[in-house]
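4.2 Preliminary Data

To establish feasibility before requesting continued support, the project team ran the inverse folding procedure on a target of 308 residues. The structure was first converted into the token representation described in Section 3, and no sequence information of any kind was made available to the design step. The complete token record follows.
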């Protein structure tokens, strides 16, 4: 069995992947806050899978962990994982003795890219665009994860597409994340609600001017990210995932309209067929956990093949 974990800010999703590539078990549990609690969450998640599947000693071959923040290339060290309360932590070194198997750690969006590639049975090239509190992408070329020498390949969220746009937390104006990130939208909406982005869509449908502006900005930001990913990496498909994609057809309709408008204005953009190259990851898919499991089984994470 290969074990994969998606350690999120509120919950951890863990899967066990059988030798043939099928997901044999899945558990979810709350993620603890701070380095010690995150370490314990990982250990507890693996133990829960062991119990659920009645796995004997030696049945687990490897563990892969997808986590927010930056993962220092070639190490299991996580830095700036603010959603976990972690400034710096060598997560692999901390959990490997307790787990007794090889452990690999990867950024959660990059892990999700590998997982989405496998879940969708993709071939060729694909970009996974995560639309959550922030915006980032993972790029898979012929089954291999593209990290880049500094691990920043796919970090499209902080590309400015409107120099007069809203201020981004990175200090620039008009970044894709400032337009399409759930955190930025919620901050600008500044009204109480459990699901601010959904509230924005509902208010826009009711004619609220601010909501309509925020909703249009979200579509503009996503469409810009799609164009950038296709024009820079020429990926066959851009798969949208993350919490915001729970809006489903409402989000896709807005993004398609934005891409269609650029195609109508430019024969070159029209030739790219961008609307047909965008897909939505099915809701509830364990992409990041599955991708982490596949990466955990690879000697070189950047060369992990998205297969069982």
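Position-by-position output of the design step:
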């Amino acid at each position: 069995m290969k074990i994969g974990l998606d350690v999120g800010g509120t919950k951890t999703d863990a899967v066990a992947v059988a030798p043939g590539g099928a997901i044999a078990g899945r558990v979810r549990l709350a993620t603890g806050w701070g380095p010690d609690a995150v370490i314990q969450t990982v250990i507890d998640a693996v133990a829960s899978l062991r119990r659920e599947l009645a796995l004997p000693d030696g049945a687990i071959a490897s563990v892969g962990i997808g986590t927010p923040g930056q993962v220092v290339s070639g190490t299991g060290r996580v830095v700036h994982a603010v959603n976990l309360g972690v400034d710096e932590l060598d997560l692999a070194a901390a959990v490997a003795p307790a787990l007794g198997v090889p452990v690999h750690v990867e950024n959660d969006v990059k892990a999700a890219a590998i997982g989405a590639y496998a879940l969708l049975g993709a071939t060729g090239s694909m970009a996974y665009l995560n639309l959550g509190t922030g915006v980032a992408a993972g790029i898979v070329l012929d089954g291999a994860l593209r990290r880049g020498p500094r691990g920043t390949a796919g970090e499209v969220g902080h590309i400015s597409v409107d120099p007069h746009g809203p201020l981004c937390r990175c200090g620039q104006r008009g970044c894709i994340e400032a337009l399409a990130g759930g955190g930025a939208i919620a901050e600008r909406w500044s009204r109480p609600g459990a699901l601010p982005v959904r509230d924005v869509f509902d208010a826009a449908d009711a004619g609220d001017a601010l909501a309509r502006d925020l909703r249009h900005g979200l579509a503009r930001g996503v469409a810009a990210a799609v164009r950038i990913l296709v024009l820079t990496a020429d990926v066959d498909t851009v798969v949208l995932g993350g919490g915001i994609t729970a809006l489903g057809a409402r989000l896709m309709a807005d993004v398609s309209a934005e891409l269609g408008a650029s195609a109508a204005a430019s024969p070159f953009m029209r030739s790219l067929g961008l609307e047909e190259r965008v897909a939505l990851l099915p809701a509830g898919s364990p992409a990041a956990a599955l991708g982490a499991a596949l990466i955990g089984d690879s000697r070189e994470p950047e060369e992990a093949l998205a297969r069982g």
